Amino acid sequence: MEMKAFASVFGQMNVDLIFSGIETPPALGTEVFATDFAMCVGGGPIVIPYHLEKLGVPAKLGTILDSEFESFIARELLTRIDYKNISEFRVSAKKPVVFTSVLTSKDERSFISFNTKIDEAALSERELLDFYDGCSVTIFPHNLEVAKELHSRGVELILDSSWTDDISLNNYLEMFPYVKFFTPNSIEVRSMCDEPDLLKCLDILEKYIAFPIIKMGFSGVITKIDGKYFHIPPVRTFHSIDTTGAGDNFIVGLIYGMWKKYDLIKTLKCANVLGGLSTEVLGCFRSDLTEETLNGELENHPEVHQVSDENQFMECTKPY
Fold this sequence. Notes:
Blueprint: E1 7-10, E2 14-20, E3 36-41, H1 47-54, E4 59-64, H2 69-80, E5 86-89, E6 98-104, E7 109-114, H3 125-132, E8 137-139, H4 144-152, E9 156-160, E10 181-183, H5 186-193, H6 198-206, E11 213-215, E12 221-225, E13 228-232, H7 246-259, H8 264-277, H9 291-299, E14 305-307
Parallel strand pairs: 1-4, 2-6, 4-5, 8-9, 9-10
Antiparallel strand pairs: 2-3, 6-7, 11-12, 12-13, 13-14
Helix pairs in contact: 1-7, 3-4, 5-6, 7-8
């Protein structure tokens, strides 16, 4: 009998073309050279079930593919990372795969993307609910009615944020009642809360989310529990070469902690570790990731501190 997936994740398939080691992005009409290149399955939905299964957590991916060459490339890349637990959906629209050129320098990244935005909105609510049937946790779906139904079934939902020039809490208010975890970084949360103090941002988030958290990239994460603020520092200094997909791998750590029934602090330690480990390779995937690797890092995790002021922890200026 097939084991039900603990985590089911639906999303667009992404293919990344990563150019690393450039000095600066090219100006119009100019050419620059990279020191390394990789074409690989990109970040987003596939990162989460891929790494969860490496950690022993039953997981599956749902995505839309077609018969065109771009989908052939995506399937070939999935084969090369040996990921098979996929539910493919077909729709009438063409070119559903997202292609992104990632230009990575020492200090920053730039992107050029092709995205027809053919996502789960192209499927019926029944198709989506059938896909999610039996899972315990998922990423917040684009369809709010589907999210409400999943929440009523006891499925726990994780909502990630993404930067827009008009980012605001108002963009998320109708989703918050159904959310277990919301995962903004420090840049996003300051803007959406219109508040420079991160601890005060936690106070604002707490009005909507039972377990408010704020990612600070290589400086760890902060949270508020029972009226007290805590800083969960990074486990160590990572030899980072590419932060593509670090946010997705942070979510992998959250789901792993939920699977293991860890408390919030230990769950956030897992998220810290997996977000950091993912930056040590080019692209979003670590083929060498194991549960033993994670546990070894957790054994060396520094002490978690209760804090009362932003000056008691250092914030990374480039959070993932």
